[in-house]
Amino acid sequence: MFPSPRIYEVITRFRQGKVLNFCNGVMYKCFCNVGESDKLPDWVKPSSAADSQEDDFVIPSNMNWVGGLKAPDEKFDSKHGSFGIVDNDVAIVTRILMGDFAMPEDVVQALNGCDSCPSNSLVDKMLKRFSNDWVCAFGLFKWAQTNIRYKHSADAYDSMVDILGKLKQFDIMWGLVEEMVKVEGLISMRTMSKIMRRLAGAGRWVDAVAVFREVERYGLTRDILCMNLLLDTLCKERCVEHAQDVFLEFKNVIPPDQHTFNILIHGWCKARRLDNARSIMEDMGDHGFLPCVISYTSFIEAYCRDKDFRKVDSLLNEMQENGCPPNIVTYTIVMHSLGKAKETNEAMEIYEKMKRNSCVPDTSFFNSLIYILSKAGRLQDAHKIYEEMSRSGSSPNVTTYNTMIAAACEHSQENSALKLLHEMEESGCKADLKTYAPLLKMCCRKKWIKVLSYLLNDMVRKDISLDLGTYSIIIHGLCKSEQLEKACQFFEEVVLKGLIPFNSTFNLLVDVLERKKMEEAKRRVQDLMMQAENSEKSCRSVSFV
DNA sequence: TGAAGTTTAA
């Protein structure tokens, strides 16, 4: 135990009110004892948001004390200020990329000043870490290319294309694609698939289809595989109409296969246009394909969504009669919907029916079962299923743990929730934001501020960053528990991160502060909200120039 | 890495 540590956050630079020193939204934090802040490296500056008075903060025993600094991981690189980063080059490059850059060229220049060498693993890690910051990612990408001993892998190119597409930098993306064309074997169907997905996601359906039309220009074959990829992308991006148009245009040139029809059936079922799905099914027959379990399951899912369980039943029977029995996916859908419709006994009956038909349950099925049992308040039964899983050969995954933890939190089984988090870690299952969100909410409700701090720190250690929704849960929870100072601190952190708080969060906080006559804090929150809204406006005007 | 299913807060 160390005397009176205080939490400091590392905040180095701002751009339009945005904190730049976190990667993928992860804010790097460090801990130091009161009166020892001069021992902090110069890149560490305490922020007002984190200047908490948690004098009794307990340092978790799994942390090491390194030269006056508390680092959440075994190794702490005090020179470059990275936590949990063992690879020195990764640390150096991360540190540089945390700067304020307007153009990729600036990033290249900054990286030229360091003596790190690019490697496949370095580029891979950095592209993942900066996948939401195309300027940094592309700068690093360009810098790596200047080294004559290094060549980007096809995967690195694909990742870069994907990042540029995700952030809607389509001109730059196309420039990179042209560069890829010059090297043989670089462009693959994976590249094309990423491009089509990002274009469709941005509402540029015509462009996505154009990629398919011109795919031979890139040395690829415009076959049924490629067409199915496009159709699937269009359906998943909610433009099944465009998928249908492409299908009609090309079906005489490129003979469709069973996948083609299933993709369209699923697309139409998801869009609640069952008539269209049925015509595709007929067309499927005309092309000599029988509907398979996947085709039927799409319809089953649609009926389930309408809670039309009579139709579900008759279709299940029809499937059996047609020699196409339902499989584990079909059963999962039906059971899940029955459970959600509060027909828990009928849902359990599906499990029995499944066993009778010797259909083997898998992890997703068990996850669904655990979910509906928990929602019905049958936590003990859910726990039994959790134990049954390992015995039956399907191991729990992240969804299993997330579901169990959320249920325990909802039913005020705090210890059990924290125990599950521990079990999750022990089993080597990687936690994510959905693991922590209910736990954080629970801590706010119970006013467990120390545990809240511990969990937040745990998240930093695991590279899991808070998003706006999670921040909102915390702020709402703290308001309800009348932990108003804490609530204000989190509100400030949201704005510092460049996020814009929801109006409901803002209104709630202002209301509570007003009721408690905390005028100064109220004004501060109002200023912060204004700052957040203004910085968004200025960002917008910049992007339209 | 060719088609269907499970956890989501304000």
From TrEMBL:
<feature type="repeat" description="PPR">
    <location>
        <begin position="397"/>
        <end position="431"/>
    </location>
</feature>
<keyword id="KW-0677">Repeat</keyword>
<dbReference type="InterPro" id="IPR011990">
    <property type="entry name" value="TPR-like_helical_dom_sf"/>
</dbReference>
<dbReference type="InterPro" id="IPR002885">
    <property type="entry name" value="PPR_rpt"/>
</dbReference>
<dbReference type="Pfam" id="PF13041">
    <property type="entry name" value="PPR_2"/>
</dbReference>
<feature type="domain" description="PROP1-like PPR">
    <location>
        <begin position="340"/>
        <end position="447"/>
    </location>
</feature>
<feature type="repeat" description="PPR">
    <location>
        <begin position="292"/>
        <end position="326"/>
    </location>
</feature>
<feature type="repeat" description="PPR">
    <location>
        <begin position="362"/>
        <end position="396"/>
    </location>
</feature>
<dbReference type="Pfam" id="PF12854">
    <property type="entry name" value="PPR_1"/>
</dbReference>
<comment type="similarity">
    <text>Belongs to the PPR family. P subfamily.</text>
</comment>
<feature type="repeat" description="PPR">
    <location>
        <begin position="467"/>
        <end position="501"/>
    </location>
</feature>
<feature type="repeat" description="PPR">
    <location>
        <begin position="257"/>
        <end position="291"/>
    </location>
</feature>
<dbReference type="GO" id="GO:0003729">
    <property type="term" value="F:mRNA binding"/>
</dbReference>
<protein>
    <recommendedName>
        <fullName>PROP1-like PPR domain-containing protein</fullName>
    </recommendedName>
</protein>
<feature type="repeat" description="PPR">
    <location>
        <begin position="327"/>
        <end position="361"/>
    </location>
</feature>
<dbReference type="InterPro" id="IPR033443">
    <property type="entry name" value="PROP1-like_PPR_dom"/>
</dbReference>
<dbReference type="Pfam" id="PF17177">
    <property type="entry name" value="PPR_long"/>
</dbReference>
